[in-house]
Amino acid sequence: MAYGGYDWNRRLGDYISSVADALNSQNGGQLSTLISVSRGSYCNVVAAGLDQNKGQDVNRLSRQLEKVAPLGEMLGQHMRCMQYFVNRRFVDSYNALEKSANAFLQEFRNWESAWAMKALHTVAYELRTIAEMADKEMASNGKIPDKLKGAGSFLMKVFGALAGKGPKRVGALYVTCQLFKIYFKLGTVHLCRSVIRSIETARVFDFEEFPIRDRVTYMYYTGRLEVFNDQFVLADQKLMYALVHCDPLKKNNIRMVLKYLIPVKLSLGVMPSKLLLERYGLLEYKEVIQALRTGDIRLLRQALQTNEDQFLRSGVYLVLEKLELQCYRRLMRKIHIIQKQKDPGRAHQVKMDCVLKALKWLNIEMDIDEVECIMAILIYRNYIKGYFSHKSKVVVLSKQDPFPALTAMT
Amino acid sequence: MADMGSFPNREIPRQNNSYGNNGYGNNGCGGNGYGNAGYGNSGYGIHGYGNNAYGNSGYGNNNYGNGGYGGHGYGNHGPGHNGYSHNSRGNGGFDTFDRRGHVDVRKPQQQNAHRMRNNRPTNWQRGPVAPAPSWRDQSRSAEVGGRNHPRPRTPELVQAEAAGRRPYSTGTRSSPDISREWRSSRENSRERGAAPARALAAYADVGVESEGNLTTSIVGTCQDMCPVREREQRQRLRDLAIFERINGNTAKTSADLAVKKFCRTISVAELHPSDVRPQHVLWGTLQYLLHMLDRRDYNFESVHAFLFDRTRAVRQELGMQCIANSQAITMFEEIVRFHIMSERELREKKVATGNEANSQLNFQQLSKSLLTLLNLYGAVDAEGGSGWLHEAEFYGYYVLLNLGDRDNFKAEPLSLWFRKVRSSVLQAPDFVYARNVLRCYRSDNYKGFFDLAQKATYLQGCLMELYFGQMRTLALRAINCGSYKMHPYPVADIAGLILMKQGDTEELCKAHGLITGIDKEQHLSLMAKQAPFTPSTQTFRHQCTLISRKRAPTFYEEIVGERGDIER
Predict the structure, then answer these.
(1) Which end of chain B is more exposed for a tag (fewer CB within 10 A), N or C?
(2) How far apart are CA B237 and CA B149, in angstroms?
(3) Domain boundaries, chain B
(4) Which of B23, B109, B497 is the closest to A369 by Cβ?
(5) How far apart are CA B331 and CA B306, in angstroms?
(6) Taking CB atoms and an 8 Å cutoff, what residues of chain A touch B426?
(7) Does the model's pTM come out above 0.90?
(8) Bridge partners for B525 per DSSP
(9) Separation of alpha carbons B437 and B448, rounded Å
(10) Any idea where the domains of chain A sit in the sequence?
């Protein structure tokens, strides 16, 4: 590929001057656009310019910049990063980026105001993105991928620089979210705790002062963490917050929140409408919900089996498995209703044998002892009010409110 | 940044993040490394070289005690000024306060409470460390003009010391030699054979216990279960285990009896190939060890303690040599089985003597070896493409070990862990079994749980026994809560449910504050709805005979199983 030599050189020069301008006028937005790598439009310019002039080295260019604005060394490394990126050498690109980010962070710490926050965020985003690509490259070359881990460590440092009091704090949540994304990808979610503690125990700062986009993302991830820990009420609060505050036009984001919110809501006894599922393409939950509505345990198990891969990948499988108890509750309720129609006087007495027959009809093999066990647990967990008799193998439901609302317990 | 001291480093580029140091936690001029802000340069209170970079690669890393804490290293205001750079021990340590009371307090930038890991593969080898001279020595040496350190403190020398190698006191070594030696040992190690990276990855996850240089591996040549050097040394020191002694003589052992001990700190560079056992010897050693489990002449605890240590050494050497193949997998499988089985045996003893320690250590090693094994499955391709024979069994053990994972915040949540499991494993019967147990556990289905326990293999039963206490308590609770007042629940039935003998069940009830009595039909029964249900403070560890009966006739058989297909 032949570049018009002089042209690229000049464009590179222009690029550098724009950076200098941005720095001198403290224009965070412009700086952010200029240093964007994976989403940026200047990479090609930079790469071509550098390629073109083998004689001119990056150090000289950065020293040039240094004369008019700080961050010369940062830019030098950053330009290298862009060059490697265009040539698809992601590991090298990441290494250069880390150096550049380091230099940037040093200067950033010294600046009083937070004008460069947007640029810092861009750097954080790029760190994560390029680290992911670098890891893939390392894995395909048979090496142990560790760039993403490194990006995580570095971003913790960035977080440290932002989390103190002062005008810079407002940018900390964005970095937190980047960290969450990294930890979730790596599976090391226990590392989230320290960051969360930092954000949530702030006394000087109100959570609502963070930008809304960051708040939604934050709540989404912390909600997911609560799901992993089986804390459904908390998960509900957080995911609902995310849902409510999410931009209604961002359908994809809403879908992501719903993917985790639905199992949580189901565990609390709230069913989404079919319309909701259709609108957001979450039809994998359709059969699950149907099973819950009808007390069809066989259908529930089948639904989990069919969509097993999907549910496992998103991490909701174990939550959905627990819904089986609710299914039993529903089954009991149906039996109760049927019995009421036949003989209202004795409807509240349900023979365990009857339950056994119903299950057999659903092709579920169980012995009477296990049925009794399930009844005992339903009562113990307050899904049903009543008692059971081991001797006569009967469950006696309470005459008043035998099926308390699910949301009442937990 | 003024260059202080006598080491002008103008030719060394600034911002050099070399050598294990990414310049983090260090402000000033991005330099804390070697050649970074040059030597003797003040990044920030970190004067001098040897300062942050060395020995910090990743271990006690750069941030602490690194610059900041008055680490006046060398060459700062001239050589030997503040004596040893405290950071040279790879402990970016906290002991880096300059004892001269001269703490550099330019700390605010250093607020990372977070350890920054240097993610470069370390080129250092942590070795036996020379005892650091006390600060008194340091000051003395400085005052006397470096009496203890006659050689010029060149960068290479400091570097080598910082890497933790013993500084050679033979005066003949001059700096160029050292740097050459360092360089050449690097090359040598490369020749030893770079380990296949996936094998490395398998061992790196849990940290190869030798903590050696991960980019090299060594190939052992020792043909005995214990290297000759160690054997002779231990004979001299009378450090022989019971099983290693000839006729009980504490100072005599033989090649047939001695087995290499586990040693925590080993530097791969210091190790001679004749000290390391190659794969086939490790295999033979393991078989010898496992046969010891069925000895009748010593009690289980002593045998276990011996095996615990020696198998750990075997694992260590497998890791050191980065051996990742089907035989290594088999060895790990057998070791994991050994630990599972021991877990059960030790639990009994724990109740008797109240000694938790052994069981806990065993549990730790069980987790570690299981994790390494699971990594190995991923790292090594099975021949024939049908996957590993026992893979599902061990994935199942992982699930069984982590049933109650909510309680353990450190671990990766099971939900996330499941993402990694291969679909071939997901459908396998052993794994499906474990998943069923998980389901019953999480739904509080005690009947289902104990039913599954009855169908378990011995080893699965060993693991499930960990949860028996919980599930039994749960059963009693549920029965107490929901059972009809007028129809007391016969204790015999409860016993059948929770797999206990009737007498034991009665005791269990009592321990929970539940009263039993004789009912109308002369059966011992539990009265319903008794108010105070006290969680039992006593741990009931009666060995469930049901599970005991499942065991193969000998421990060895249980661990090794049928092994027609594995080559020796």
Answers:
(1) C
(2) 34
(3) 197-382, 483-560
(4) B497
(5) 17
(6) 308, 312
(7) no
(8) B490, B517
(9) 8
(10) 2-210, 325-409
**Per-residue pLDDT, B111:** 34
Tokens of B371: 């994790």
Task: Kindly state whether B378 is in contact with chain A, defined as any CB-CB distance less than 8 angstroms.
Answer: no
When CB atoms are compared, the residue of B419, B442, B528 closest to A313 is B419
Name the CA radius of gyration of chain B, rounded.
Answer: 30
ipTM score over 0.90, yes or no: no
Q: Does B497 touch chain A (CB under 8 A)?
A: yes
Question: Please, what CATH class does the domain formed by A325-409 belong to?
Answer: mainly alpha
Nearest CB neighbour to A150, from listed B119, B200, B475:
B119
Neighbours of B272 (CB within 10 A): 12
Cα distance from B118 to chain A (closest Cα, Å)?
8
Distance CA A174, CA A161 (A): 13
3-state DSSP call for residue A394? Answer: strand
Stated as kind and residue range, the H or E segment containing B525 is strand B524-526
In B, minimum Cα distance to A226 occurs at: B406
CA geometry: angle at B389 spanning B387 and B390, to 5°? 115
- Give the closest of B23, B439, B445 to A377, CB-based: B445
pLDDT tens digits along B456-505: 999 999 999 889 988 999 999 899 888 888 888 888 899 889 888 888 88
DSSP three-state, residue B249: strand
- Those residues of chain B that have pLDDT short of 70 are 1-202, 204-217, 266-269, 349-357, 383-385, 406-411, 522, 531-532, 535-543, 562-568
Q: Per the CB < 8 Å rule, is A157 touching B24?
A: yes
Question: How do A394-397 and B489-490 pair as beta strands?
Answer: unpaired
B287 residue type, one letter: Q
pLDDT computed for residue A221 by the predictor: 95
What gap in Å lies between CA A62 and CA B351, rounded to an integer?
A: 70
Compute and round to an integer the Cα radius of gyration of chain A.
29
- Whether B117 has its CB under 8 Å from any CB of chain A: the answer is yes
Contacts of B243 (CB under 8 A, 6+ apart): B257, B259, B292, B298, B303, B306
Q: Which chain A residue shows the shortest CA-CA distance from B194?
A: A143
| C-alpha of B475 from chain center | 36
Q: Which residues of chain A lie closer than 8 angstroms to B423, CB-CB? A: 309
> B27: which chain A residues are within 8 Å (Cβ-Cβ)?
106, 109
Token pair 């809560």 in the structure block, residue: B481
